[in-house]
Amino acid sequence: MLSARISRLRRRSDFQQHPLAAIRRRLWWHLRWRLSSRPWRLRIGDDLEGYSPKSGPGALIYFQGYSEPSTARFLKEFLRKGMCFWDVGAHFGEYSLVASQCVGETGTVEAFEPQPAVYSYLLRNVEANRAPNIRLHPQAISDVFGTAELSLLHDPSLAYLTPPDRGRSVSSLQVQTISLDQFHRSTGTAPNLIKVDVEGAEHLVLEGSKDLMALEQSAPTWIVEYEPDNCERFRYQAEDLINCFAQHGYATYWLTDQSYLVPIVPGESKEIVGNVVASKTSFTSVSA
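RE: above sequence
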């Protein structure tokens, strides 16, 4: 466990640039939460601010500016004024706020976050950053319209829809669910980019997005978390996500720490943890 933590720390860009400062920030992060449980006001990137609970993404924002710098950079490079971004698993709004700046007043951001306690942070951050182009939805995205059980963990960013065959969790709540195809039909607008981070329920999101994925000229580009351990919770293999995209005519890429898009080679993906970008349009900034 300790060796794994040290290995992760060494890979962080802030540690590689300023090791002592990076260690000090991590010590202060833990000490501060021992002193106070009040929300922590963090700077997100250069010009955004957000209130964070004690969570993994909040810690990473404090350490390095964004929880995933490569994802933030991809959003900034991809999104343009007037575009539409859907944030599935928005947490307290980090990427919704980044996207809001990118798409401007003529664009829209649809942010989905089913955890009431985290949703309150999301609402607060949207108001604090004066982002009226962000529309909030207190629902979980799944394959059907209805209700589901959401399992809660000590870190709110790790909450997940409870698989039906796993029984009731010790700490859980009932949440409303909707599919992206249903939401698409209700709005009549296809998104340009969808980010999905739902702790293993990604296959349910894709299962409920078949009509969106079947589009040709207006098919959305996707950023989807690829975490084999989370997928096993739902009894499927992470590479099934890549296969699903391929069946719908998508090319898939690894979004690396350097923000390069590396084409995915079939069969290489079993032990990798990261983010997958899926698109029906080719990218020019693809690493060799």
